[in-house]
């Protein structure tokens, strides 16, 4: 197996979704952060072997969005491209697929990452409206059309929000937020603990931006109205425990603990990375940001999908014969504060280790100071197709800044899965 390196990468600022569609399409966002990466590369864009992009809800005119992004970036018609979809881990899956192509010697340079414009998720007609329209189109003659028109009911106009459907598991009939409530109940996680974690996420992200730690990672965005976006606009620098405590539960209004304040935000954003094999690194004299060592995937009960990282990380560490203490940093996607705290509790639980992991003893929780030390999705947002790539990009920069070492990027995945990727860097300037 050939070694696989990340030589460069960038992400956009993450933009919190408002009631109206955001200023950028998913393809716009991917192009915006990939373009500077290609401009920094010491080779022509056409030398890239393949483009792989994760995206969950591309627009109707963005079919195989990876190909659209590749052509817009000027990689050339000869460069193949494909899109992957693994719910929240689509961006991580894109990196994993690129890793496999290079590790197997089938490619040397791959542009991979993820993008999502959640604010532009389509609003659709319901089946009754679609059926009525079909009948109207089939009607022949004035009389048949009048009868078809007479069958119309106002209820047919009720829209179907594809984003809400996509965030609800069709088998267990629970929204992602409701699965977080399940975990909070299972592990006895209180509302105060969740709010405290959420506050910490905002404080850590704000400190990272203020210290300049994000400048090598985040590219400035400009929209057509002259607006400039320099940092994640869902970051709430002025939040505190009192403000968080005043928010009402969203997913279980009567008994719930999960609020908009201790959940990740619906967000638009993209992250794109340039991966290279050893031959490409030598041939083009590329600076290496870090090495991707491998990845693991796991399945769990969809009603407790937030525990997916527990399983995936356990498999990954076992394969590489590592312990939690060997990790310099872990980036665990903050879908919900309850979900992160539940993963920590499960890693620390002898009962969970025996019953769910088949281990004699628990892995032990990740050191809280090394878990998301620059904040996470509760503060910056969770553009589902892009988050996995964002986690890996940030982890590589953070490890390099802190002297190098091993790190893991991991996510829970809607539908009851978990994904994890192991990376390693040397110390040095990012």
Task: Write up this protein.
- By secondary structure, this protein is α+β, with helices and mostly antiparallel strands.
- Among the domains are: 125-162, no CATH class; 176-213 and 293-425, Thiolase/Chalcone synthase (Peroxisomal Thiolase, Chain A, domain 1), CATH 3.40.47.
- It has helices spanning 26-40, 65-72, 90-103, 127-138, 142-150, 162-166, 176-187, 191-210, 241-245, 278-284, 308-319, 337-347, 350-357, 377-380, 387-401, and strands spanning 4-11, 15-16, 50-54, 81-84, 109-117, 123-125, 159-161, 221-222, 228-229, 267-277, 290-299, 327-332, 404-413, 417-426.
- Strand 8 and strand 9 form a beta hairpin.
- Helix 1 (26-40) packs across helix 2 (65-72) and helix 4 runs antiparallel to helix 5.
- The longest helix is centred in the middle third of the chain and has 20 residues, at 191-210.
- The protein is globular and about 75 Å long.
- The mean pLDDT is 96.
- Residues 4-278 form the Thiolase N-terminal domain.
- Belongs to the thiolase-like superfamily. Thiolase family.
- InterPro entries: Thiolase, Thiolase-like, Thiolase_AS, Thiolase_C, Thiolase_CS, Thiolase_N.
- Pfam families: Thiolase_C (PF02803), Thiolase_N (PF00108).
Task: Detail the topology: elements first, then pairings.
Layout lengths: L3 E8 L3 E2 L9 H15 L9 E5 L10 H8 L8 E4 L5 H14 L5 E9 L5 E3 L1 H12 L3 H9 L8 E3 H5 L9 H12 L3 H20 L10 E2 L5 E2 L11 H5 L21 E11 H7 L5 E10 L8 H12 L7 E6 L4 H11 L2 H8 L19 H4 L6 H15 L2 E10 L3 E10 L4
Parallel strand pairs: 3-4, 3-5, 12-13
Antiparallel strand pairs: 1-10, 1-11, 2-10, 5-10, 6-7, 8-9, 11-14, 13-14
Helix pairs in contact: 1-2, 3-15, 4-5, 7-12
GO molecular function: acetyl-CoA C-acyltransferase activity
Protein name: Acetyl-CoA acetyltransferase
Keywords: Acyltransferase, Transferase
